[in-house]
Every structure is written in structure tokens, then in C-alpha cells.
Amino acid sequence: MARLHLLAAAAVLAPVLLAGCGGNEPEPQLPDTAPSPSSTPSASPAAEATQEPTLPPEAEGNDEAAAEAFVRYYWDAVDYAQLTGDLKALKKLSLPSCASCNSGNEYVSNMYANGGSLQGVDYTVNRVRLAKRSDGADFGTYRAEAELSNGAYTEQASSSAEPVDRPAGTGTAVMDLTWDKTGFSVATWTLR
User: Fold this and answer.
1) Helical H runs in the chain?
2) Highest mean pLDDT, choosing among 38-52, 130-144, 162-176
3) Is the pLDDT at 31 greater than 80, yes or no?
4) Of 62, 72, 155, 181, whose CB count within 10 A is highest?
5) What is the CA radius of gyration of the chain?
6) Using CB atoms within 10 A of its CB, is residue 132 exposed (0-12), middle (13-18) or buried (19+)?
7) What is the model's pTM?
8) What's the CATH fold of domain 2-16+41-155+164-191?
9) Among the ranges given (36-40, 56-60, 77-81, 186-190), the one the predictor scored with the smallest mean pLDDT
10) Alpha-carbon gap, residue 105 to 111, rounded angstroms
């Protein structure tokens, strides 16, 4: 299976966009545990992905279960943004300093502004592994590894561009989450 096109449109620009803004931070060891009932795959069927997702109550805390629910919600918001061009909700889920988030959002915004679109984008979060950051980071900060897959989709970069069929793929998004009184935010992510 082809490598996942993470934030599909951003991935075609250049792999450097996926580098995130994390620098040389130490990686905490993530436990290799079997999926729990709360770790079952989540998928947003294309018909449902055109409805703006809402933050599930499970994502409103600051513990590990809430972090996992937030990661799944984040990828539902990515689906919605890529299918509709509406980035309002997705932008609220990341810190302003998240370079990889901003690059993906900008590409999708420009694509839709130029009459382009993404058809059939649908990420599935197959598994989320979490570790509490041990590098002195603020309370409620986690490193998440989200194992993702997506089906084949079609990208049209602008109204004058030819549609390009993209293959299905898999990959792991390594995400740093931070938490404050308003909830979790994505601080950085990279594709592995």
C-alpha cells in the first residue's frame, strides 16, 4: 500500500512540509499495547465527513483517554476541511506556531480558493498510542502516534488543473499535544 498522503494536498508540495516544528526534542517511549475498546478504528464515511464534526465529550478532559479522543476528532476535522475547504474548525485545533498544521491548512485553502477540490478523502485512525511528555513540558502534554490509513482519492489543485488520482495509503502521524483550560491543541506533527 502506498504511503499515506497526510494532509493529502500538503504532502504533494514537498516532504519538508511534513517536518513539523518540533526540533530535536526527545521522544518518549510509547507502550505497545493492544487496542482497547476505546481504541477501535474510527472512520468518517465520505457522506458523514461533509458534516462538520463536533468535539466529543470524551475529548474534553486532560487525561490519556481525552487525548486519544482528541486525536481521533482532529483527523475527523482534517477530513471535513479537505472535503469542504472549510478550515475554521481545524484551525482552532492547533497552536498558531504549528508549522506543519499551517502549511497543510494553507495548501487546502489555496486549492479551494483557486477552484480546486479533494474528492473521496477519508482518514481512518486505526490506533493511537500515547505517552506523557517527560521533558518538563506543561501538564497535560502528550506525544501521540496515530496510525492512519486513507482510501484512494482525487485531487484537483485548481479549476484549470487536471484531476489526479491518489492511491490509498498508510502512515503514522507523530503529534505533540498540549493542553490548557480550553482543551487540547496540536503543537506539532510529523509523518513517519
Assistant:
1) 8-13, 46-49, 64-84, 88-91, 99-113
2) 162-176
3) no
4) 72
5) 16
6) middle
7) 0.78
8) Nuclear Transport Factor 2; Chain: A, (3.10.450)
9) 36-40
10) 10
